[in-house]
Amino acid sequence: MWRMDPCVQTRVAESKSKEENLKLFRNLFFASGRLDSFPWTFLENELERSRSPEVISDILKETLGHSLARQFPPSVKFRRKFVVELIKREEVAVSGGAEPLDQLYDVLAQVIGLEERAGGYKSYFLPDGGAVSLLENEAMISDGTTGLVTWEAALYLAEWAMEHPERFSGRALLELGSGAGLTGIVVCRSCRPSRFIFSDCHPGVLTRLEENVTLNGLMVQTDLDVRVQRLDWIEVTEEQLREVGADMVIAADVVYDPDVVEHLVRLLSMILRCSSVPPQVFICCTVRNPDTYGHFTRQLESAGIHHHVIDGPVNQVFHYNRNSPIQLIQLVTSPMFEKWSDGQNARNVT
Fold first, then answer.
1. Contact 181, 212 (CB under 8 A)
2. Residue 133: enclosing H or E segment and its boundaries?
3. 3-state secondary structure string, 82-121?
4. Cα–Cα distances in Å, from 219 out to 222, 226, 228, 350?
5. Is the Cα dihedral 258, 333, 329, 154 positive or negative?
6. What's the rounded Cα separation, in Å, for the pair 83 and 321?
7. In this structure, are residues 63 and 74 in contact, taking their beta carbons and an 8 Å threshold?
């Protein structure tokens, strides 16, 4: 599992201002980030310097005391762990002469008294200061599916979309394997498409997806046609895809199981060939297993589909595990080389 190197964590904390570190605490808390990725070094340094619990009070205001915590709280389990970790850091400082904060123990008592459930909300802050809040499970696999949590490639694709809103503006989009809905919701809120169809197949995922789309106010937007639709990769027909009428198709973290690759490639082949003007297709993959990703790209080539890797840095908006490489590719039915007007390159890898 991913952990930030303690030396790196120290340098990062020291290079940021107090305001930036408090914001980092807020962002990681609401996304239920790994506890060892929080800027604890900043907290320790502040407690040692000031001997005052003011910084802990500030952290509580940005996390458990934030208005978002009342409306979309992280899971009870995560909140308990977070408060316990805060108390550990505070007790070390108190033993060194710092002043204790009684409020911290009041917060712990409140959290301990809450009923524990299977999941909670995760909120992802956007550059404009708003947040996308999603109801997610804690377990990576639950109810026989991986679609009840947000995965790394979904966050990366959302970041890329926010950097290139012009690519999505006015488009009719279909998202394959929408899962919890993060990427699509970000695109709808930041990129002004004309229509967006979230799709998945698992009944539990579809129910959760519709809840999250509604939760973020997309169903009441009058300038955007939003739908949540069941799409079975095995059963879908060309006629159904033509009825969808998408001129852009996106998907994130759908290449994770060799057993589904064949069905995915068949679907992508139909999407690219069922209309006179093929839609633009972007697939974002976290390459956890190079053999699985290689199998996917070979299956694409066997189906006559060429892929171009979209190179170029993407500004980090969200905090997530970036240890495994993430590939963003565009699919086409004939080999070509494109240069984006924004300076990014699409590299033909056929």
1. yes
2. strand 131-137
3. HHHHHHHHHHHHHHCCCCCCHHHHHHHHHHHCCCCCCEEE
4. 8, 6, 10, 40
5. negative
6. 23
7. no
For 3-17, what is the mean pLDDT? 54
Identify the CA nearest to 173 among candidates 249, 227, 225: 249
To which H or E segment does residue 331 belong? strand 326-332
Global pTM reads: 0.88
**Sign of the four-CA dihedral 68, 142, 152, 177:** negative
Q: Which residues lie closer than 8 Å to 339 by C-beta, 6 or more apart?
A: 345, 346
Contacts 24+ apart (CB under 8 A), 345-350: 345/310, 345/311, 345/312, 346/308, 346/309, 346/310, 346/311, 347/308, 347/309, 347/310, 347/311, 348/306, 348/308, 349/297, 349/307, 349/308, 349/309, 350/301, 350/306, 350/307
Strands 326-332 and 280-286: antiparallel
pLDDT band at 6 (very low <50, low <70, confident <90, very high): very low
Q: In what order do the strands lie in the sheet with 195-200?
A: 225-230, 195-200, 172-176, 248-252, 280-286, 326-332, 306-310, 345-348, 338-339
Structure confidence by residue, pLDDT tens digits, 12-28: 445 689 999 999 999 99
Nearest to 38 by CA among 100, 84, 91, 98: 84
For tokens 């008294």, what's the residue?
113
Confidence of residue 343 (pLDDT cuts 50, 70, 90): very low
Give the total residue count for the chain: 350
